[in-house]
Amino acid sequence: MQWQFRNRAAVAIFACILVTQTGATAWPQSGRTIRLILPFPPGGPADAMARLVAEQVGASGGPTMVVESHPGAGTEIGTEYVSRAEPDGDTLGIISNSFVVLPHMRKLNYEPLTDFAPICELASFPPLIVVNSTSPYRTFADLIDAAHKQPGVLTYATLGPATASQMAFEMLKRTTKANLTFVPFAGYTPAVQALLGGQVTVAQADLATLQGQIQTGKLRALVTMARNRVDSLPDVPTIAEAGYAEAEAEFFGGVIAPVKTPDAAIAKLTDLFTAAIRASGVKAKFATLGFFAGGECGADFAAILHKDYADYGRIIHDANFKLE
């Protein structure tokens, strides 16, 4: 079963799906401060993405946007905070794949597909699997061979619990038949710090978090889990090239508003975010971080969320995932 959720060909089927919004015909922009609620600790890919876009909106004469971190419970805390916010366009949420994974794991105090108004997918980014530069594992094959020989001994750090990152790990385990021990962290940055400190064997994170440590030679990238190689790391093979195409994964970052946010506010915010991610400066910075600019907004973004929700649900059910 191929684990790849970014198939845009299916989006047209769902293009008519969009959360119903109500509201006024005008949304004054000047003097506003818009809060972008990040459900992760600072320092990860969603944080970098949100700050770049927020800076571009402000630099282009738009309203001030500030990023606030509300981490915890696999992104549930921050997302629930947004669901309870006043629907006036001043409080928005940053989301990732966990937005459509977590509902299949446990009961939430919000419904992702009906309690929010999707605005835009801002970017996507591939996860990388890395080891400490002092590690004896030079290739992904070395790592998997060692895991086969030492079941449960090697440790694997990434986001968790009940996140898309953990699902990527679980799919990796099933595809490679390697018994690695999962070590969950609230953010990619603490996971990488644990790897640097020798507390874990291997880590999965994004290029934005890893780039500095890879460039200075402190970390070694074994594979990218995306379908294509990362431009800034041309010598790092894809996981398909390593022989495990079914473990491919790619994560996204987007922005949502509470349901019932006025139509005028949603329309203006869509324009602001679309312009920001299309700006040449943002595209260039995204590229250096290994991000791919998004651009699907409104009904198209809603369709993507509906499709990913269904895809994750089917895979979780079929594979009988038990994520705590």
Tell me the layout of helices and strands.
Layout: E1 33-38, H1 45-59, E2 64-69, H2 76-83, E3 91-95, H3 98-101, E4 116-125, E5 127-132, H4 140-149, E6 155-159, H5 164-176, E7 181-185, H6 188-196, E8 202-206, H7 207-215, E9 219-224, E10 251-258, H8 263-278, H9 280-288, E11 292-293, H10 299-319
Parallel strand pairs: 1-2, 1-3, 6-7, 6-8
Antiparallel strand pairs: 3-10, 4-10, 4-11, 5-8, 5-9
Structure in words:
The protein is an alpha/beta fold. It folds into 2 domains: 8-124 and 250-319, Bordetella uptake gene, domain 1 (D-Maltodextrin-Binding Protein, domain 2, 3-Layer(aba) Sandwich); 127-247, D-Maltodextrin-Binding Protein, domain 2 (3-Layer(aba) Sandwich), CATH 3.40.190.10. The protein is built from 10 helices and 11 strands. The protein has helices at 45-59, 76-83, 98-101, 140-149, 164-176, 188-196, 207-215, 263-278, 280-288, 299-319; strands spanning 33-38, 64-69, 91-95, 116-125, 127-132, 155-159, 181-185, 202-206, 219-224, 251-258, 292-293. The strands form 2 sheets. It has a 6-stranded mixed β-sheet with strand order 2-1-3-10-4-11, sandwiched between helices. Helix 1 links the parallel strand 1 and strand 2. The longest helix is centred in the last third of the chain and has 21 residues, at 299-319. The radius of gyration is 19 Å and the shape is globular. The two termini are 23 Å apart. Residues 1-25 have low confidence and may be disordered.
